[in-house]
Amino acid sequence: MTRLADPLRFLSMLAAWVATPWALAPYSLFLAVGSVVLLVSALAVFVTPGDNGVEREKILVPVPGAVTIGVVLLHLVAAVVSSWAAWPAWAAIVVTALATASLIAEQPRWRGLLTVQG
Question: What mean pLDDT do residues 82-100 have?
Fold first, then answer.
């Protein structure tokens, strides 16, 4: 299940990166662009040492595992909510199923992350 977690997480995050600005663009181009910047930069800046073999010297802001879990949850929620707001129901159902599968597959990794302090 752990091997499946990585591609499911990536696809869920990709859905968040596409659906969130798509949902926000009719209201504000600034919010649409800002949402992608926020989602992507959170992954790049806040990293738990030891997660996925990341070297400590490449981490900008080391954080406890709970923060990494929060960033992933932010992406999953953004993917689901934004897909329902922006896309047809069939696409939102696919994204919801993908995010649910990712949430389930992430559990072993998250148990390990909860023991890691930044």
Answer: 98
pLDDT tens digit string along 51-72?
Answer: 766 666 677 888 999 999 999 9
**Which residues fall within 8 angstroms of residue 87, CB to CB, at 6 or more apart?**
19, 22, 95
Q: By the 8 A CB rule, do 63 and 47 touch?
A: yes
Q: Is 47 helix (H, G, I), strand (E, B) or coil?
A: strand
Asked whether the whole model's pTM tops 0.70, one would answer yes
Angle at the Cα of 34 from the Cα atoms of 117 and 71, rounded to 5 degrees: 20
Tokens of 75: 């992406």
CA 40 to the chain's CA centroid: 9
Q: Is 86 within 8 Å of 35 (Cβ atoms)? A: no
pLDDT of residue 56: 65
d(CA 74, CA 68): 10
Cα–Cα distance, 114 to 117 (Å, whole number) = 8
Cα separations in angstroms, 6 against 24, 60, 85, 109: 27, 22, 26, 10
